[in-house]
User: Fold these one by one.
Assistant:
Number 1:
Amino acid sequence: MINVLYIGDISARPGREMTLSVLPELRKKHHVDLVIAGIENLAHGKGATVDTVREIMAGGVDFMTGGNHIWRRPDFEELLGGDFPVIRSINYPPDVPGRGFQVIDLGKKGKVLIALVQGRTGINDPVTHDMLRPLDSMLSDQDVDGLSAVIIEIHAEATSEKIATGLYLDGRVSAVVGTHTHVPTADERILPKGTGFITDIGMVGTMNSSLWVKAEIVQQQIKYPYAPAYEVEEKGKRRFDAVLLEIDGPRSCTRITRVNKVA
Ligand SMILES: [Fe+2]
Ligand SMILES: [Fe+2]
């Protein structure tokens, strides 16, 4: 059995601080073998830097995924092209830097494949393929039975795309988890053929913000064709959204549990 804690998009300093404050206890309490987190909003909401990635790795994050905002800072080259355990979506054109999946070795617990795929509805980003064909070809190239777990993250706006992708992969991977909206959904479940699923994990950051942005700024943006640049909302309570996955094989999950904290 492998216990994975999968954390929603860690957003700016409030998100990093909240992650570092809750992670040690969660790791211990749930005997977590692997912590995965979304980092597209890690550095001041926009992309990630090498320093902020090092900060959360020192705090207990083992593996990271970069959604559509990972390109917002030049550090993406080093984060995606080097030795950092960071992936980008698999359905970008082949000349986009980085890799869309990675197999990591947990020693006695075996090898875990993690892949990220991006939806196309409502995200203005040059992904070139649908979500399903690249995942099909990746899975057919891998020795799935030789792995302990296969986890797919779908970073997408539309719940319909996420649910359809989850059901498409049911019984073929351990878990399919959604991200990008920053709003946790209450539909976590084991799908009929054994795959763990949730439409959206949520986020880590300031709770009463517009995803991580000061709400006044987004309100200005709604009302006027001119609006100030986005600023991080630093004030107020913070939330921490994650799911715990108990995985017993490369095509099944025994339990998926939401972890939602406010502090
Ligand atoms: Fe995000
Ligand atoms: Fe995103």
Number 2:
Amino acid sequence: MVGSALARRLRAAGYTSILTADRSDLDLLDSRSVHEFLAREKPHYLFIAAAKVGGIQANNLQRADFIYQNLMIEANLIHGAHLAGVQRLMFLGSSCIYPRDCPQPIKEEYLLTGLLEQTNEPYAIAKIAGIKLAESYNRQYGRQYVSVMPTNLYGPNDNYDLVSSHVLPALLRKAHEAKLRGDKECVVWGSGAPRREFLYVDDLADACVHLMERDYDGDLVNIGTGEDVTIRELAEMVMATVGFEGRIVFDLSKPDGTPRKLLDVGRLEALGWCARTPLSEGLRLAYEAAPFRY
Ligand SMILES: NC(=O)c1ccc[n+]([C@@H]2O[C@H](COP(=O)([O-])OP(=O)(O)OC[C@H]3O[C@@H](n4cnc5c(N)ncnc54)[C@H](OP(=O)(O)O)[C@@H]3O)[C@@H](O)[C@H]2O)c1
């Protein structure tokens, strides 16, 4: 999802030398192939959008895969970039790197000040290692490797698999299928009370390019909207987008997770960027592009 949004954003800005690689071109778990690829291509800028990504269930069940694969992808790309002389790189982390119970909204300096959420701890530890890798190459070798921490993302090319997806794409698909079946109810996990923040993926890509073009090479930066909604409000907006007219039922037997997760975006705003796509508009665009409709 993020890689294709970055390519769209760069193309729209007139960049013509955009090199992408998917799994069939390059297995990022294979150090030698990654190092050879980077030594051959020598990109001026490198965005690391590849990762093993998933929702709570996938993170909790495939704990070894999440920590191993993410550590390998980051280490291969960051060390490989350094060996190939790549000076500027952007590493994408995730807001789950912050302590589970940290104050809200979450400031960048809360990193490593408390315990992590258990369900995705292996993934978060791998992402924290990625941030520290980038930081260490800057300190030891004078590289300009920046880490950004996006909030929950959604948009074209999202993962709509009901087992491994995140809450927003899962809701879009469930609402769509409920509408097609003519159901009277659509079930949503948990109480609907937790508050979450959602950023349209093209806004994220815009923020990443904004920072890269301005040669930003400071500390890690949160990327979000600075606003959150309850899961109930999100579910209502999704149902309206899809045109599902039945009732929303909250399944209280399912966990809520942390009550609130909102990023502080003060640092990003001070760097001259803020999100543009309102949630209602982003939902419409995501639904229009959703593969399960076609
Ligand atoms: N989605 C969110 O809500 C969210 C929120 C915060 C941060 N992020 C971060 O943003 C980045 C991108 O996330 P996304 O949502 O765009 O995920 P995504 O759609 O799953 O994209 C990840 C990409 O990485 C590729 N990949 C994984 N392992 C690989 C390997 N060994 N070799 C080659 N390619 C490999 C995947 O290929 P396959 O398709 O072949 O598996 C996929 O194309 C990640 O770093 C993620 O942590 C995402």
